[in-house]
Amino acid sequence: MDRSKRLKDGEAMPRQRRELFLRLDSASIKVDQEARTLDMSFSSEAPVDRWFGTEILSHAAGAPNFDRLNNGAPLLFNHNMNDLLGVVERAWVDPAQKMGRCTVRFGKDERGQWAMQQVQDGILSKASFMYDVDHYQAELDQDGDEDDVYTATKWCAYEVSLVTVPADDGVGVGRSDQASARRVRIEVSTPPAPPVAQPAAAAASTTRSSMIRAIAQQLGLRLADNADDAAVRAAVCQKLNLIEAANDAAILSAMNQRATQEATVSAEAAQRAERERVAGIEELGKRHNLPVEMVRKMVNDGTKIELARGLTLEYVASRASNGGVARLGDDPNPDLSDKEKGKYSILRAIQAWIASDWSKAGFERECSEEISKRSGRGASKGFYMPTNLPFYQRLSPQEMAQRAAYSVTSGNTGGVLVAQQLLAGSFIELLRNKAKVIQAGARILAGLVGNIDLPRQKAAGTAYWLGDGANPTEAEAQFELVGMTPKTVGAYSLITRNMLLQATPDVEMLARADMLAIIALAIDAAALYGSGVGGQPQGIANTPGIGSVVGGANGAQFTLDNFIDLETQVTAQNVPEDALAYIINAKTIGWLKKQKSSTGQYLWNGPWNGLQTTPDFRPGSYPLNNFPAYRSNQARSNLTKGSSSGICSEAYFGDWSELIIGEWGVLEVLPNPYGAAYQQGGIELRSLQSVDIAPRHPVSFAVMSDGLTA
Fold this sequence. Notes:
Elements: E1 12-13, E2 16-21, E3 31-32, E4 37-44, E5 48-50, E6 53-57, E7 64-65, E8 74-77, E9 80-94, E10 99-106, H1 110-120, E11 126-139, E12 149-163, E13 182-183, E14 185-188, H2 200-218, H3 229-239, H4 248-288, H5 292-300, H6 305-319, E15 325-326, H7 338-343, H8 346-355, H9 362-375, E16 383-385, H10 397-402, H11 427-434, H12 436-439, E17 443-446, E18 452-459, E19 478-484, E20 487-495, H13 497-500, H14 505-529, E21 547-549, E22 556-557, H15 560-571, E23 580-584, H16 586-594, E24 621-624, E25 627-631, E26 639-641, E27 644-655, E28 659-672, E29 683-695, E30 701-708
Parallel strand pairs: 6-12, 7-12, 8-12, 11-14, 15-17, 17-28, 21-30, 22-30, 23-25
Antiparallel strand pairs: 1-13, 2-11, 3-4, 4-10, 5-6, 8-9, 9-10, 11-12, 16-28, 18-19, 20-29, 23-27, 24-25, 26-27, 27-30, 28-29
Helix pairs in contact: 2-3, 4-5, 4-6, 11-14
């Protein structure tokens, strides 16, 4: 026996595989063609040679863990996670035969039908399963002429496969799967024998001394370098709660008990975390109606819950057909009907909070408490307001002129407001009306809970032309994660006392819109040039990897060439053109419109674009060089470049569907009756909203930040 290959306590143990014949000649093992199921054995206590010795999988009570198998584990072909044949319906231990058995159900697709027929015909006659070992009971050979025997007393099965070629158990299949390696605890049944080269008495003394010092090291004891054996033994006994006179057998027994307890606690914690992960993924699947195969793959691949949330958002966003806004349900908002949403009154909630009397605002209080429970944020000093409440549709300029002010002291400035029926809309709709980045096509992921990771491909694979009999060079695509975490934006607004006393829907709508408009504009600005520090999201202008067009050392007047260069920066990266658009400020659009040819004709209707001046392809945009241009003074016009101080403008171009705005769905409102408007009876409102912003691919955007408009 080569002792150098001996498995050590705490060593990282890769995931293992074992094979077993299906034995279809047995009357008790056959394919049920109607139910598409097969009952079969997949594990036993048969000894298997491993690189470290002989391994036995105990099937005693508490040894095998089939929780993963009993939670919809996959039936695979040759352990390929991308080749699904069916599902494991249930797994159990046959105590009489000391074997693991399971019922598998073949899929109805082509691969499932093929596999079922191959098994029925006896062509696929071997099953294999993958497992982890948490704890071994080891019997170590002292003479070197026999293998060490490791009995797995705690092990967990992960999947079952039908295989064509059996694995080489002797080399430990799965040893290259280091990502799934886990540390294994080993309890030694027989302590190592003393070296034979020394006299018996001296050897025994040396062995005991080395053993006690090794135990002291395992216990993490800090001892002086010159500590004698008696001091080391006393420290070990004290650590293990033994008397100082305890013999070697008692010390070894206490160490084994300690190791077993630690392994049990570790295994239970791991199992608990795994159950929580699986439950979280399954809940995502139910809540967002994900395909069963997608949920199963995330469970079986060990996908972390943060990445699972990102994958879920990606899937839901891809199937969204409501103008690029991905709606994941109202969570954590209450499940309100349209009638209940119209019934909600923020003014009533404010009055109740000020008076500390919610008797007339019970519905609003229930909404706040439900949001608190769903979001896990706990009670608010103010109250939580749903973000899916209705707002009025956009008003005409004439209507807006009638509603210019919020005071109700006269008919011209508010007294003309009359009750009307509430129209459909939401907080997200209000954002879309205010934020040009959303109008341009940015995607909103609403109703988020917890941190998320969005996967993105950072490098493509490579295709090769092959000669006869040649193999392709391995060049896999590379992926990375884009993390999104909630960042909070706050805003102050003011409601006059007279306005607070009104009960018409118009006043209610104006109160909601006024409070949220400031937040909408803050989110819009952060999407463009958020710093990424001090609690701000990182906007496009400060994202590494975006395209850049430079006018000059002191800036330069905007020209058509600048905009062509912006387009080239993006389109050269193979960015899809469906959502490409500009966002530029009013000064820039004004400058462009005034540009004339040598004959005095305005260029805006000439080479600047091939479309009509009045846009009809995207509401709210101007056609610029055959792309939509959105006018927004959120694009700054006070930047500095060299000697051009505070007069430079910025222009953004890109695929705005690549910009993700995450919205955590909780709006916290805290009224303050003792603020600056206290003497006039006004109420200050502080509103807080949690969002984050991330471009999927920075190369989808390009910015020029030193354009001059004079």
